[in-house]
Amino acid sequence: DLFQKLDYNKKSSFIQSLLNKIYQPKKYFHYSKQILNMYMIAFMLIYYLTFNMLENGFNLIEKIYNFTLLPLLIVYDELDLPEPKLINLKYEMIFTCLLTSIIYFGQLFFGMKHYQKHMLNAYKGIFIDIPARSAFKTARLMSKKYSLS
């Protein structure tokens, strides 16, 4: 069959087996250059935004923390609460950025997997869950996503 998986006899590494779960090589299916470029730009953008947020976010947190530190220390002294630490805020920010980027990467990988599934079904003549071209017009997309109520 033209659309079956390619059979590899050699053992694969853990990373390769994970990638095969996302993208299963097919004999007559390859991503177009446009799709690959789009996904590469999305991956690079997520990488850039994540580490740019981390780099610039630490400075922003320090400025906000120093600005709000005096009122907080007065309240903490009166209530006998432990003093907040700036290091904990940095760790929370690192964890949040990394978790967000992992979620976005997962969404991109699953999008690639579904794109492959839909394209293979289209090659077979099965057009289930594939919207018509008219559904991708800008005005229709905007009207479906936004409501003025």
TrEMBL record:
Statement: the UniProt record of this protein carries the keyword Transmembrane: yes
Spans through the membrane: 36-54, 91-110
Alphabetical keyword list: Membrane, Transmembrane, Transmembrane helix
Name of the protein: Uncharacterized protein
Source organism of this protein record: Adineta steineri
Taxonomic lineage of the native organism: Eukaryota, Metazoa, Spiralia, Gnathifera, Rotifera
